[in-house]
Every structure is written in structure tokens, then in C-alpha cells.
Amino acid sequence: MLGDITTQDVDVVVNAANSSLLGGGGVDGAIHAAAGPRLLAECRELRRTSHPDGLPAGDAVATGAGDLPCRWVVHTVGPNRHRGQTDPALLASCFARSLAVARGLGARSVAFPAVSAGVYGWDASEVATVAVRTVRAECAAHLGIDLVRFVLFGDRLLAAFEAALAQPHPAG
Length: 172
Fold this sequence. Notes:
Number of strands: 5
Oligomer: single chain
CATH topology: Leucine Aminopeptidase, subunit E, domain 1
Number of helices: 5
Shape: globular
Protein name: O-acetyl-ADP-ribose deacetylase
Organism: Fodinibacter luteus
Helix content: 40-55%
CATH class: Alpha Beta
Radius of gyration: 15 Å
CATH superfamily: Leucine Aminopeptidase, subunit E, domain 1
């Protein structure tokens, strides 16, 4: 859907974070701004304790949601094509790890942005294909998540995800 991920009434909103976990631009900046200071405080605590060197690309970690309408934020760091991170498996890991973290929290609904399709330089169609394929496979293999919503901020991204969702998924 076309929309604002910060307004989604779901259990988990996925943040396309940078490795510092301390906010940034795009989706990351919007989520931090809407969530308020509690989110940044939790991210600072993660950096102080479990992630002193930041979160690596392809991984995911959860915090509370601060002032957002969701219960949790799952932060994932997408691969940066401009830095030579071009492996689609690393991008797929963002979606798979985010869902695994969400399941671990007991979440039943998740909203994703188009991870890495912004300033990290990935083509919208490639992100959409990887995201849809990974989410379908993860949801087929694991029970728990009832709703996955891709919340996109522009017509180009929406068209790419609509095209990927229209593709048949393999039997299995």
C-alpha cells in the first residue's frame, strides 16, 4: 500500500535503519521522529550493550515503539549497493531476520518499508522481488505472522511491489 509506515496499526513496524541504530534519513529518520525520544534511548542502550559496533547489514533487532501506534520496532540494516553490498541474499536476510525477530516477540502483524530501495541504491523492482519472495517463503515455512504489509512512500515503489506480488509463487 501507499502510505506512511509511522501510522501503521500493526504489532511490528520494520525500520530500514543504518548500522548505528541512532536514526538517519528516509524511513529511519521518519520512524525516529514519530517515535520520540524513548526509541532513541533504547537504541543507545543497544549500542552500549549488545551492539557496540552497530548492527551488521542483513541482521535485525527489536526495541519498543515509543510513541508509534505499533508495539515494537524491528530495526534491520539493508545492504548498501554504493558500498559494494550487491548480494541479494543479504537483502533477503533483512526480511527473513525481521520476521524471525517479530515471531520471537509474539507479533502477528508486520509492516515493511522497501529496505535498501532509497539512498542505498537498490533497484525498486529487485527489492520488491526479493522482499516478496522472502516473505512468502518465511510465512509458508513458519506459523505466527498473519499479516505482512508493504508500506511504500511513492508510486514507483508501489508499482514495483504490485508487479512482484502479481507473480505466481512456487508451489511448496
